[in-house]
Every structure is written in structure tokens, then in C-alpha cells.
Amino acid sequence: MATVAALHVEHLHKRFGATVALADASLRVARGTIHGLVGENGAGKSTLIKIIAGIHQADSGRISIAEQSFARLTPRQVEALGVQFIHQERLLPASFTVAEALFFGHELRRGPWLDRRRQQREAERLLAEYFALQLPVTALVRELSSAEQQVLQITRALLRKPRVLVFDEPSVALVKQEVTQLLTIVKRLREQGLSILYISHYLQEIHSLCDEVTVLRNGRDVAVVEPRSASGAEIARLMVNREVQDMYPKARVELGAPLLQVRGLSMAGRYRNIDLELRRGEIVGLTGLVGSGAKELVKTLFGLMRADSGSLQLNGRYLQLRSPVQAVAAGLALVPEDRRSQGISPQLSVLENLTLAGLGQFSRWGILSRRQEQAQSLHLMGELAIKASSPQALLSQLSGGNQQKVALGKWLSRRSTVYLLDEPCVGVDVGAKVEIYRLIARLVADGAAVLVLSADLPELLGISDRILVLYRGEIAGEFRPGTCDADQLLACATGAVTASLGGEDAYGSRN
Ligand SMILES: Nc1ncnc2c1ncn2[C@@H]1O[C@H](COP(=O)(O)OP(=O)(O)OP(=O)(O)O)[C@@H](O)[C@H]1O
Ligand SMILES: [Mg+2]
Known about the structure:
Rossmann fold, globular, 24 strands, 18 helices, binds magnesium ion, disordered C terminus, six-stranded mixed β-sheet, binds adenosine-5'-triphosphate, 3 domains, alpha/beta
């Protein structure tokens, strides 16, 4: 090839015990280009990145950066070679302030002293410059939303003025507007001569960004394609090695009685006068930008936050939710967005995690039937294509997307009346997404109701019966898929228009 490689990975092999994570994986990022890396959950993408980063060491193979070739690298060497990483797991120290986290390891000093003032000023300037974001720079990392933490990580990497930048699923925590910003930034970085390796499960992003994309399957590079001349469906097929059709399987389900009724729910400064109804057999989508109140509304329904006024009925019974435990006991199933910290236990096995929520179902006279437990979990693992060496494997050893699937499976395995799903498909590959949509369709066919909060508008349009859009704490629009498109939803979410379903006022006397 005539072009110069900024990063060249050749014939990497890597095993974790009995698991083969990489089996002869190669990849070449030409200088000044954006190179995509795609593959199913567990294909080996993060492992490849971690080997370049010096976090893991390959069993064999070579890595060339800036025309120097290495069999193994240390994190320090890689940084000195001008490579920066935005990893899939957020790694910023939670107890640091925004400014401290940005300059951690590269503190600004005045003589021998730490120059806090300047760090704060610089942090403000950088965040505003790159993301048009006004974050309180004295806030703690743990107080930030996942989107804000992600932005912080990216800014931190840019601060080191890298030549090569590696992103492992940078957009999963971001909403549409922020994704657009991110893509603009990444393109701008390419113009400035940076070389970029970009992992994403969002094929639209790959399409709009990448000059070339390497497809990884079972630890091996199976194709390099130019997204401009290959369709998303083609890339998806290369990833999963079969046709991906009918992305949004949907069964016709008769709607029944209301299962969840929310009336006049308000929480000061978050959301106002929310009426919401979920009927048996119904999938309702909910969306809104950061700050729209959608997250908080769902958290209230989870029992994680409390409303100031309004009422909530489940199956005709009034409820006062004070905790997720109560919510679950009342028949709600929740899949929180921050599943790593709220949904699952990394130090327990896949089996234990899957059975944790549904424990009651397997106990007879208080004794757990291990066999039933195991059978059900194996069934779920198959259904969601959870890739693990065995049901006994620790969750922390699974790839990011497979951990997401376990968190989801844990709740879907439990019979509930109403399912509240916060971003159910974040980080999940295209094949597994279809399986999750199929599961959701089955839940409502079996008589449940599902509320899906998602920033992925095509997903909401594909699976919902109805979509509610929140803007500044109020329901600004109600849409039926089939009669609207993503642009209309976005226009509503940004406050450009309001919309209601003409004629059929599902919410009674809202004014
Ligand atoms: N520390 C580890 N110990 C044991 N197995 C591991 C470890 N890290 C990764 N693996 C295994 O290696 C394989 C590849 O995982 P990797 O995280 O690279 O996948 P990925 O392509 O990044 O997937 P995802 O899209 O879900 O993030 C998986 O089967 C995973 O379970
Ligand atoms: Mg990964």
C-alpha cells in the first residue's frame, strides 16, 4: 500500500485460560484516516485495543507504531509514542473533581505547587472548546452523568495531544445531539492529521465517519471494507456471518387494560405534570435529551427518586414507591442504564447473576432447585447468545456487550407485570439486538407492558406502539411509528415543535 501506517497490528494471538480472544488478528490504520473496527460482542475488539494499550500482552504477534515494531508494549511506551485511548469501561477516579480528573498525572504546576486555579480555568476552557459544555469543574466525577464522564475522558485524551486516538465505543453513553458533536470532533481531528481507530456497534456512525473498517469475527479479521461502497447490511452480515433481516421483529398484540397509570407526576426542577399509561400488550417508547427529565421520570418509576406529587397505579392499585425493592415486589421489572453499578455483580458468575432477580421462582419450600436454575440460565444464555466460557465464568471476564446481555437477561427472566427498560440495547451488537427486540415482543405477547427509554430513535420507531417525547420536563409530543420519522422526534425533543396524536387523547384531561 502506498499510504503510511500510523498503527499496524499483525497476527495477534491471545488466550485467557481456555478462551481464545484473538486468533490471528491484523489491522492497519493509515495515517490521517479514521479506521473502524466492528464485530459481535466478544469478537475480541477490546482485547485487541488493550494489547495495543499495554494492558494485556499478546501471546504472539507484533504492533508497529510510528514505524517502530514491538512484540509487547507498556502503557508508558504507548503514551510516549503518542497514542491515547478512550476505553469502554470508564476509568476516571470517582472522587476527583472534574479539573483534577482532566489533569490527573499531568498536573499543572507553578514552581513546585499544584496550580488549582489554572487547572480549573483550563478545564472550563477545554470543555467549552471541544464540547460546548459548561460543566462545573469543581463537581466530583461521581456526580456527573455517564455522558458527561465520557466527554471528560475524551477531553482528557485530547489534552495529551496524541497522534493516534483509539475509541472503544465512545458514543454509547451519549444522546443523539452529543453523538453528532462527537462525530464532528472526530472528523475535525482527522483534518488536523490525527489517525483514529474507532470501535462502535452503531453502523450509521461507522458509515458517516470511517475511511475503512476492519471486521473482526471470533478473534480474526475477516474483511476490510470501505463503508462508502458497502451497505450497513453488508457490514452486519460480515460481522455475524449470516443475513440480518427484520431488524425489528414485532408481533401483533391486542392491547388490554391499563397496567400502569401515572397521573400528574411532578418533581420540582425535573419533570412536571406527567400523565402516562401503559396497557397490557403495549410497548411505549420514551425519549428526550439530557435534562429533559426523561431519565428522572424513569428513575422515579424505578423507585430510585421520589416525585413531589402525583399518583401511580399498577394494575389498579395505588403505589408509593420508595425503593427499587418495593418496585420489584409490586411487579415492576427494571433494567437500569448504569447496569455495571446497579444491575449486576462482576464478582459473581454468569449463572448467579442471571438467577439473582428471579430467585423466588426456583424455590420450593424455600430450597433452590439448582437444576432448574441452571436449565433456565442456560436457556437464556442461548437465547441472548451470551458468550462465556461456561455459566460459572465470572461476569468480569465477559466482554462489555455480553455483560449488558446478562443484566438484561436477569430481569427478563423474571415474570413481571410492567418492564421498565433504560437503554436496553446500549453496547449490544446488531445480531443480539434483534434477539432482545424479540424478547421484548414476547413479553408483551405474554401479557406484560413495556416502557423503553432510549436515545436510539430508529430503535424506538422500530419497536414501539407509541412514542412519548419529553422536552424540559413535559411531554411535548406523542407519536405513532409509521406516521412519523426520526427527524420529527428529534425536532420535538429539541423543542422545535410539539405534537399530539390527533383525536385520540390517551391522557384524559391534560392541559
Ligand atoms: N480478563 C478476561 N478474562 C477472561 N476472558 C476474557 C477477559 N477479557 C476478555 N475475555 C474474553 O475474550 C473474548 C473477547 O472479549 P472482548 O472484550 O475483546 O470482546 P469485544 O469484541 O470487545 O466485545 P463487546 O462488543 O461486547 O465489547 C470474550 O470471549 C471474553 O469473554
Ligand atoms: Mg468491548
